[in-house]
């Protein structure tokens, strides 16, 4: 054991030395101002064909329109709040303004960053952070999903409808709750099969193979319309419905009919529940860079404001448009109050 | 004997140094292949990693990783692959957070209680795999992997608005009741507007000392290592192998229960749906890198924290953030290979020396023979 203690002493001494030598070293803070737009994606990042890509679209448009530079960072699986804070702080330190956190997982880290960098304008998507220099860009996913439920209720022939959620998080339950209500209000005979790609983990947004498996399972149970709110995993479900005649998928976040990666399946994409993250992100950036009057507080992108909508691309639901528009009017007028959570 | 010891020290140090150097070269090659300048990247990582706020970050992160490494190492020392540390620590942290959020006792009572709950839950979850192995011969690798999945599902079921958690509709975050402020663990202020250093680092250090004492200085530790070397030999010498398997699984699980504690008691003060995941697997890498030795694991944990800190910066500087993941993977591979190479080299040296000694002896014997019998040439 003597040998171990020698190494131990040497190791501790080296480590202690390394730390004490640099303990008085400078902090990693430095930087200028007005470096451009800082965008921090959630896990998956640019290229997920879904939520993050939608934000990227708004960001790209802002870069072009306002002729500014920008920097994109992406959270990785397993990042702690300290890691996320580090990313936001690096952006703010380097003078990026505004800084946008895409996804509710940025809530604790962005709250902290906004407190420290009071001169930087922040925005968070899908969550609320209460601070003067933060705009909270929230969408009424449940309202848009209600309309998707109406479309599914009218289009199903087997009276069996499926919902695939990326994970059983509160946000995804907003989609499920609205969808279920829209379906039941329109077609009381229809049953709904709800499944999660990965329970308790955001990994479920990046597993197209699992999405496909679940969808195929549903299809073999005679489900003929499947709505996926599962980020990248939804592509698997779309692929599965394309493989069986007479079945439909419903896309999410962006208008997936126009998604290049899904072009070969577009004729089975009934509609998409479009959530204009691109619009809300773009509006916020514009308010900071062009209008010099940064948005702040809760910016609610609901059905009324056009923050969520159902797409008619492909013309597959043109025949039921009057019924969808009627439902939409009822929600906008407040006659229908849509559930914002799902209970099984 | 003295000389032999020196050589062993040299060999013990040679392996990690060799591994790190090889990993360094391989990563540089990967960076070159992606068309980036490698030494600049290492420079960025180093410059950023030694800054004051980075040091705080690294120490805090290493505290968690150290406990994870110890937990895995307890199993490794007796050839038991507890892959289930991941599920054990998450479940433990969850129940500890629930208990902590429900009570309002003085911190002096409540903090130990929370820690105890975590250790108990971790140990109990690990014991399932232990019992299955002892009584049904189920490989702990398989059962613990499955238990990881189960613990995830169990947490998901309970971490729901109205069950054991509350949903904040504004932020979409589901969380257990926050711990009362009396249950926040102490911290060391780092000054200068920096985040404080988590006080749990003290507990982690104590756990390391406990690990060293238990395995290196007690009968139990000797038995445990003996089982790890050879189960049948240990059995023959009167060690109850079944009991050892179960006990070490329980210990490993109890240690796993501590992994979530620095985060819970020093940082988040509640269990949310995005409580850090995957640390159990990081622990496997760290235990391997640290050679299941408490000091080695500490160095590995610090190195891991340093690499992750650097990863954040590399991404900012326009490098692919995956490069650090590659680096970590390469380090683990290199470590495993380097240790094996050094072990074989050491064995060969030993054989040569023993062979030489025997040969010398034989020659000496022969010499005596010669003088006595005068064998004709």
Automatic annotation (TrEMBL), chain A:
Where can this protein be found?
A: Cell membrane
Pfam families hit by this protein: Bmp
**Source species, domain of life:** Bacteria
Q: Which residues form the signal peptide?
A: 1-23
Q: Where is the ABC transporter substrate-binding protein PnrA-like domain?
A: 42-340
Q: Which residues form a coiled coil?
A: none
* Alphabetical keyword list: Cell membrane, Lipoprotein, Membrane, Signal
Q: What is this protein called?
A: BMP family ABC transporter substrate-binding protein
Q: Which organism is it from?
A: Streptomyces niphimycinicus
From TrEMBL, chain B:
- Cellular location of this protein? Cell membrane
Write out the transmembrane intervals.
56-76, 88-105, 111-132, 141-160, 197-215, 245-265, 323-342
Stated membrane topology is: Multi-pass membrane protein
InterPro entries in UniProt = ABC_transp_permease
Membrane keyword on record = yes
Note the PANTHER family from the entry: ABC TRANSPORTER, PERMEASE PROTEIN, GUANOSINE ABC TRANSPORTER PERMEASE PROTEIN NUPP
Task: Report what the protein is called.
Answer: ABC transporter permease
Species source reads Streptomyces niphimycinicus
């Amino acid at each position: 054991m003597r040998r171990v203690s020698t190494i131990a002493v040497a190791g501790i001494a080296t480590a202690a030395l390394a730390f004490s030598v640099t303990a008085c070293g400078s902090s990693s803070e430095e930087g200028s101002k007005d470096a451009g737009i800082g965008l921090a994606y959630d896990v998956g990042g640019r290229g997920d064909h879904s939520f993050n890509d939608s934000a990227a679209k708004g960001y790209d448009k802002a870069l072009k329109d306002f002729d500014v530079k920008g920097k994109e960072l992406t959270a990785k699986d397993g990042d702690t709040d300290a890691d996320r804070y580090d990313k936001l702080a690096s952006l703010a330190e380097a003078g990026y303004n505004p800084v946008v956190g895409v996804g509710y997982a940025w809530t604790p880290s962005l709250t902290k960053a906004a407190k420290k960098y009071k001169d930087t304008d922040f925005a968070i998507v899908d969550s609320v952070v209460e601070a003067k220099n933060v705009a909270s860009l929230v969408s009424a996913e449940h309202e848009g999903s209600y309309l998707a439920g109406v479309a599914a209720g009218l289009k199903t022939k087997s009276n069996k409808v499926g919902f695939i959620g990326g994970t059983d998080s509160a946000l995804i339950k907003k989609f499920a709750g609205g969808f279920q209500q829209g379906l039941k209000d329109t077609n009381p005979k229809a049953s709904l099969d709800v499944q999660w790609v990965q329970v308790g983990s955001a990994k479920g947004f990046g597993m197209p193979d699992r999405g496909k498996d679940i969808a195929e399972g549903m299809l073999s149970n005679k489900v003929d319309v499947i709505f996926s709110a599962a980020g990248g995993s939804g592509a698997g479900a779309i692929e599965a419905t394309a493989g069986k005649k007479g079945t439909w998928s419903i896309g999410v976040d962006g208008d997936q009919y126009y998604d290049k990666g899904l072009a070969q399946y577009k004729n089975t994409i009934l509609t998409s529940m479009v959530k204009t993250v691109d619009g809300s992100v773009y509006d916020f950036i514009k308010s900071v860079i062009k209008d010099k009057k940064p948005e702040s507080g809760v910016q609610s992108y609901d059905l009324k404001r056009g923050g969520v909508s159902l797409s008619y691309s492909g013309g597959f639901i043109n025949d039921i448009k009057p019924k969808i528009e009627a439902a939409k009017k009822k929600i906008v007028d407040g006659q229908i109050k849509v559930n914002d959570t799902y209970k099984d | 004997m003295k000389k032999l010891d020196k050589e062993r020290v040299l060999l013990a140090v040679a392996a990690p140094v060799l591994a790190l150097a090889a990993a360094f070269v391989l990563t540089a090659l990967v960076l070159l292949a992606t068309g980036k300048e490698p030494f600049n990247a290492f420079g960025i990582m180093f410059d950023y990693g030694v800054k004051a706020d980075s040091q705080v970050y690294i120490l805090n992160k290493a505290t968690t990783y150290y406990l994870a490494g110890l937990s895995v190492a307890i199993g490794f020392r007796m050839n038991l692959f507890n892959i289930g540390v991941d599920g054990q620590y998450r479940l433990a942290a969850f129940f500890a957070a629930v208990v902590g959020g429900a009570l309002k006792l003085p911190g002096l009572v409540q903090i130990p209680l929370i820690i105890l709950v975590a250790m108990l839950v971790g140990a109990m979850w690990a014991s399932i795999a232990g019992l299955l192995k002892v009584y049904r011969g189920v490989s702990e690798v398989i059962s613990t992997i499955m238990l990881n999945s189960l613990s995830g599902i169990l947490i998901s079921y309970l971490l729901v608005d109205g069950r054991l958690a509350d949903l904040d509709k504004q932020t979409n975050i589901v969380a257990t009741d926050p711990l009362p402020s009396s249950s926040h663990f102490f911290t060391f202020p780092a000054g200068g507007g920096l985040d404080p250093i988590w006080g749990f680092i003290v507990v982690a250090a104590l756990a390391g000392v406990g690990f060293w004492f238990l395995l290196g200085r007690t009968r139990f530790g000797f038995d445990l290592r003996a089982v790890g070397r050879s189960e049948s030999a240990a059995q023959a010498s009167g060690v109850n192998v079944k009991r050892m398997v179960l006990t070490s699984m329980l210990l490993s699980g109890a240690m796993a229960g501590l992994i979530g504690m620095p985060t819970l008691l020093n940082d988040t003060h509640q269990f949310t749906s995005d409580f850090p995941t995957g640390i159990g697997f990081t622990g496997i890498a760290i235990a391997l890198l640290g050679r299941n030795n408490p000091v080695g694991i500490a160095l590995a944990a610090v190195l891991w924290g340093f690499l992750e800190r650097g990863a954040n910066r590399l991404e900012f500087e326009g490098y692919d953030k995956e490069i650090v993941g590659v680096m970590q993977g390469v380090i683990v591979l290199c470590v495993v290979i380097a240790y094996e190479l050094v072990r074989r080299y050491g064995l060969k040296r030993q054989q040569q020396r023993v062979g030489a000694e025997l040969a010398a002896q034989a020659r000496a014997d022969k010499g005596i023979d010669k003088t006595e019998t005068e064998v004709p040439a």
